[in-house]
Structures are given as C-alpha cells and as structure tokens.
Design goal:
The chain is 72% helix and 0% strand. The protein contains 23 helices and no strands. The chain has 2 domains: 283 residues, no CATH class; 253 residues, no CATH class. With 551 residues, the chain is mostly helical. The two termini are 14 Å apart.
Length: 551
C-alpha cells in the first residue's frame, strides 16, 4: 500500500501505481523494438544493394514465400519499399506480441492481485470497484502510449537508416499498434472477471487473441467464416499502414478499436461489480458440505505437483492452444509444401536442406513453432514466481520448512513437467493433422523434437529462476523478455548480415537448431545443457542468500 499512497503520486494514485509497476517494461519494449527495427532496416538496405534487379525484383522473388507463410503474418504490400517490408516483417509480429502482453497484464490487473488482499484494502477506503478497474486501465493506457511513442521513434530511426525517412508515418504506425494492444488489455480484463482465476483468464484471452490473429491473416481464404475478421482487433490495426505507400492512418478503424476497448472495459466493470471477491463471475458456487478426507491429496505433498494441480486449468488451456496451433500448421502442409516445391527461394530463406523432402522440411518448420509456445509458458511461470514473492507465498513455503535450493528445484521440475505436457499435446496435434492430410511424419524426428524442446525449456527456466532469485521483482521478467528478444533477433541477423554460423550458438533459438531433421550441433547442445545446469545451480545459490520477499 505504500506505493499507492505515496504523496508524490497524482490524485488518481492507482494510475501512477500502474505506471510505476511497468517502469522496467516500458523501456524494454521501446529498446527491443528500436534495435529490431533498425537492424532489419539496415539488413534490408544491404540486401537490396546486392540483389540483382533491385528492390522490385527482390520483392517479386519473395512473393511466393510470403503467400505460403501468410498464416504467420499478413498483409504484405509494397515489399519493394522499406516501409512495406518493415510493416510486414516487424510491425505485424510486434503488434501480436504487444497485444498478448497487454492481455496478460489485463488479466492480472484486478484478479491477479486479489490473492494478496491489496484490492480489498483499496476498496475498504471507499473506492468503488468500477473506479479501481478504470484507474488501472488508465494507467496501462498511459503505459501503452509511452511504448507506442517509443515504437514510433524506433521506426523513424529505422526508416532514416534505410534511406526512406517517414517520421509522421512512423508515429502513426506506433499509435495504431498501441490501440490494438489496449483492446487486447480490455479482453484480458473482461475474461479474467469471468473465469475461476487470473491464470485461467490469461490462457483463454491469449488463445482467443491468437486465434483472431491467425483468422485475420487468412480471412479472404476461408469463405463465409471470413466475416469473423470484423471481431478481430488485428483487422482494424492492419487498416492503418501509414508506412506503406498508398495507405495511411485509418481514423475510422482506430476509433473502432478505441470504442471496442471501452465497451469491453464496460463489460468487465459490470462483471466486477456483480461477482464475489476472489471468484469469477462464472465460477461454480462452492458446495455447502464437502466429504471429510482423512489425508490430503498426494499431489499436495510436493511443491512441484501442488503447483501443477493449482494450475491445472491454465495448463489444459496451454495444451489445447498448442495442439490447435500445430494441428493448423499440419493441416496447411499440402498447400504450403506445393508452393515450397515450386519456389526454391522460400526454402533458402527458411534454411531448408537440399537432400530433404519438401514435406519433411515443412513439418520441421511447423515443429519449430513449439519453441515460442513453451518460451511463453516459461515467461508466465517466471511472472508467477515474482508474484509468489510479492504475495508472501515464498515465506510460507520456506517456513514449511522447504529450503531455497529445494524450492528452486521444485519450481524447475514443475515448469519442465508442464512444458512436457504442452509439447506432447502440440506434437499430437501436428501428427494427427499430418495423418489426415496424408503427410507422413518421422517418429524418430518427433522424439528428437520432444527431447530437444525439453532441453530448451530447462535452459530457459534456469535463466528465469536465476533472474528472479537475483532481482526479486518484475524487472526479472523484463530481463527475461529482453534476453528472449535479443536471442530471437540474432537468428535473423546472422544470415541477413552474413555473420559466421557459430554466432548463432549465442542464441538459445540458434542453439535449438532443427531437431526434427537432425541432431543439433554439439555446440548448441552444450550451450543449452550448460545454461540449464549453471543457471539452475546459480539460481539455488543466489536464492539461498536472498530475502524471502520481493524488492
């Protein structure tokens, strides 16, 4: 409560408190976006200068690959210009990432804090539930405004580096991204009011928004179902492509996004007023009598199994989303494989190998889509560890007594087990869809894919545990996000700037390799194994000397 009542905050203290809570996230998003935009712009300019025929010929050669991969990002207009390329290559994915981030923040804005009792103290001062919700929304709107301004500045710098300066279009693009993200925040707030927990709300909101993103990309290819695009915030965000020649900032679409966010927040406020504190609006009412149990559930006797039991609904949502995503990738195999077979350019940009069948190359690419899913899962677990510190759960566990090293190990085991369930579900979805469309899968490749994915999770979870033990605040999550963004960007920069392949081993994504087709390089396996062992032991050692509460 000290931060809420601080005398330096404005008359709406929850607004200032929300901004303060994101003081690390704001610069991380801005810096990450700026580095990515400038790096890709420099690479685009370099590639155009070397490409026979210039920008137009390069754009024409890219078109088949772009069409084949439209499920992942779309629209793709004027790829012969830097503004069109950045909008397609960077802005669309940044919009998805920021919108999902906002949805997670929205799901936890009210519901996530209820376990700590802080909202109850605020409400006890006479503040209405609607006022609390709207103040939190206003604070996050300011957060997104700052990120949008930073994104605009990064785009402006990138356009200048690429020799096609467009300051106005850059900042208009940033504002469109921010509006889309705020609608995602409103979705997260509303869904979390309806579900049994903030974790369940997070999973459902993320699944819903990801589905809408994919639907928007293929809306003109799915017949009557394409009308659903009008329910997608990404459809309206795509209407404002101010950096693409021939397009501009769509005022009507932007006002529609703002109106949708307001309507969703209004629905969330209504649900918040009507539901019980600490329970979702659609939560099944508690039974008045329960059978007496002589012993507790066996799963509650260990931290790792108790964690999975507590998160079972959220984990089921993750598994369903992963299975659906990979099943969709498998279902698209015939169409995409035909295009890959006709256009060798697509195979080159994806690193396909000449001795492999096109079907195997595509299934390998589809299998790699598990990586961002499990990475996001580890990210949410790290955020949960920080919340455990803030809400005093760590003190209770250590008084159990459970030692710090044991707690760290149990957390890593729970994360690895949850990620294993998600990975198995995803591979099952991919396999089932591949069988339906007549594409054979390689059991050895799938086994290898599972094993290397779990090694990747172990490494990333160990890094997350070390960051949480060291920083003991939301800055740990920001640090993990920055690490992931830098690793992901490095995978693009190495081929784009013709750096040596060994540089890829500095990235966890590069070390992961392409396990469906082959065993990753021993250096990559060594990097992942070293991170898992050294990060886990380092986290235990640092935690042993750390306070039991958040900073």
């Amino acid at each position: 409560m000290s931060s809420i009542n601080h005398p330096s905050l404005p008359s709406r203290p929850l607004v200032g408190d929300t901004l303060r809570a994101h003081r690390w996230g704001i610069p991380a998003w801005i810096a990450g976006a700026a580095v990515a935009m400038v790096a890709i712009a420099a690479g685009f300019a370099s590639e155009v200068s070397r490409f026979a025929g210039g920008a137009q010929e390069m754009a024409d050669s890219m078109r088949p690959g772009v069409e084949a991969m439209r499920l992942l990002r779309w629209p793709a207009d004027r790829l012969d210009t830097l503004g069109g390329y950045l909008t397609y290559h960077n802005v669309t994915l940044f919009t998805l990432g920021l919108t999902l981030y906002a949805a997670v923040q929205g799901a936890h804005a009210v519901r996530g804090a209820e376990a700590s009792g802080v909202p109850a103290q605020i409400l006890a001062t006479g503040r209405s539930r609607t006022g609390v919700l709207l103040d939190r929304a206003a604070g996050f709107a300011l957060t997104l405004a700052l990120i949008s301004i930073g994104l605009g500045a990064g785009l402006a710098a990138a356009m200048a580096v690429g020799g096609e300066p467009d300051v106005g279009g850059s900042f208009m693009t940033g504002s469109a991204v921010g509006l889309c993200a705020f609608s995602g925040y409103a979705v997260g707030v509303l869904v979390s009011q309806l579900t049994s927990s903030a974790r369940a709300g997070t999973g459902i909101a993320a699944l819903l928004l990801t589905g809408l993103y994919l639907l928007t990309n293929v809306a003109d290819q799915i017949g009557p179902f394409g009308v659903l695009r009008f329910a997608s915030p990404f459809h309206y965000a795509n209407a404002s492509r101010a950096l693409v020649p021939g397009h501009g900032f769509d005022v009507v679409a932007s006002l529609g996004l703002a109106a949708a966010a307001v309507a969703l927040l209004g629905g969330a406020a209504w649900a918040y007023r009507d539901r019980d504190y600490g329970a979702g609006l659609w939560t099944r009412p508690a039974r008045t009598s329960r059978p007496v149990r002589r012993v507790q559930r066996p799963a509650l006797r260990a931290v790792w199994s108790a964690t999975l039991l507590r998160q079972r609904l959220g984990l089921l949502t993750w598994c369903a989303a992963a299975a659906a995503w990979l099943a969709l990738m498998g279902w698209l195999e015939p169409t995409v494989a035909d295009m890959w077979n006709d256009f060798q350019y697509t195979q080159r940009i994806l690193g396909a190998e000449p001795g492999r069948s096109v079907a195997d190359q595509y299934l390998a690419f589809a299998g790699q889509m598990i990586v961002p899913i499990v990475a996001a899962y580890v990210f949410t677990q790290a955020a949960g560890w920080v919340n455990d510190l803030k809400q005093g759960r760590v003190e209770l566990l250590l008084a159990g007594p459970v030692s710090w090293p044991r707690l760290v190990g149990q957390r890593l085991l729970a994360t690895l087990t949850g990620a294993a369930a998600i990975t198995v579900a995803a591979i099952a979805g991919l396999t089932a869809a591949a069988v339906v469309v007549g594409a054979g899968t390689n059991p050895i490749g799938l086994t290898r894919l599972t094993a290397i994915t779990l090694l990747f999770v172990a490494a990333l979870a160990a890094i997350a545990a070390l960051a949480v033990a060291w920083l003991r605040s939301g800055a740990a999550v920001t640090m993990l996000a920055a690490f992931l963004a830098a690793s992901y960007l490095l995978v693009y920069l190495v081929p784009l700037l013709a750096w040596p392949n060994w540089v890829l081993r500095a990235s966890v994504f590069g070390a992961y390799g392409n396990p469906y087709l082959e065993v990753p390089a021993w250096t990559g396996l060594a990097v992942l194994t070293g991170l898992a062992l050294l990060g886990g032991s380092g986290a235990a050692a640092v935690a042993q000397r750390s306070p039991k509460v958040a900073t």
